[in-house]
Amino acid sequence: MLQSFFILCSGADPNLLADCSQGEKSKYAGIGATVFFTAVMAFIASAYALFTVFDAVIPAVFFGFIWGLLIFNLDRFIVSTIKKRDRFGQEFLQATPRIILAIIIAIVISKPLEIKIFEKEINTVLLKEKNAMELANKKQIGTYFKTDLDKNKAQIAALKSEITNKEKEVNNLYNTYITEAEGTAGTKKLGKGPVYKEKRDKHDAALKELANLKTTNDAKIIELEKQAQTLQTDLETKINTAKPIIEGFDGLMARINALNQLPWLPSFFIMLLFLAIETSPIIAKLLAPKGEYDFKQEELETALKATLEQNKYQRELLVKTNATMHDKVYEDIAEDKRLYDIQRKNAEELFELQSNGFVEKQKGTL
């Protein structure tokens, strides 16, 4: 039962193999098994690759199954259409397009499995890339908001500096009138004289100005700080918005690029393994000597070809013979005197009718 299934997978004619030896049946069963398991590997590889795209099991399994059937059909077609010839060069030339197709299929099958085999290493590469992208994103967004934030900070600093300068001015005026009262500076007269009063009034006026300035600037600073908070919130919102996009940077193309950043030798040997599996039925058929099945297949083909050539020759001969017979028949008819007289009489009557009709038309015209 299993052997019959694998023979079916090989594309061989089971009726021709029925009378062949067990060894010949085993050879084609082995070829069919290779075709079948290659299709199974193609299903697994494509299902995994599609799972990374759709992130869902059912679509990945469904389309992976379709892809596996496609690869199975292609491999079966490739193996079944390679026929043994008397010269290896002719066989290899016949198999060259199929070998190229097998190489392409092997590369397509191996790549998703390479991604799965080196999944941990690929995740490490992707993590580094995600971190770099996140830092670059923060830097880009920070640069975008930097002008507004710097301007906001400069305005707040200017307002605070204005208050500080005013406080220094008030403190200096305070020291001036205190030292005047103590007699250690200014007029150096102890007591609260007119100069002291003048300096005290000047200090009190500056102190009122400081109070008004603080009230005004504090209100402005509060408003600017609110604006700064809004800008900072917008900046963090944009950074957080980009985070899911960066975290989702692990699709099929990203993983293939990450795989290309890893050492090439392990991936190369895995691809060679699948290439060997994919081309093994073709190579086996090229290297194997002619067997019973090949001789029987060749016999059927030559017999069919001979029959077709014979039928074609008979049809051409039949057409030629019929043409000769028809020529002879019409030649004999042409020499018959009775038929000649009948044909002449009919021609005379027809000519007379044509002549009379022409005369009637001419009269009508006149």
Automatic annotation (TrEMBL):
> What name does the UniProt record give this protein?
DUF4407 domain-containing protein
Question: Coiled coil where?
Answer: 149-241
Keywords, sorted A to Z: Coiled coil, Membrane, Transmembrane, Transmembrane helix
Organism of origin:
Flavobacterium agrisoli
InterPro entries for this protein: DUF4407
Task: Give the transmembrane region(s).
Answer: 28-50, 56-74, 264-288
Top-rank taxon, per record? Bacteria
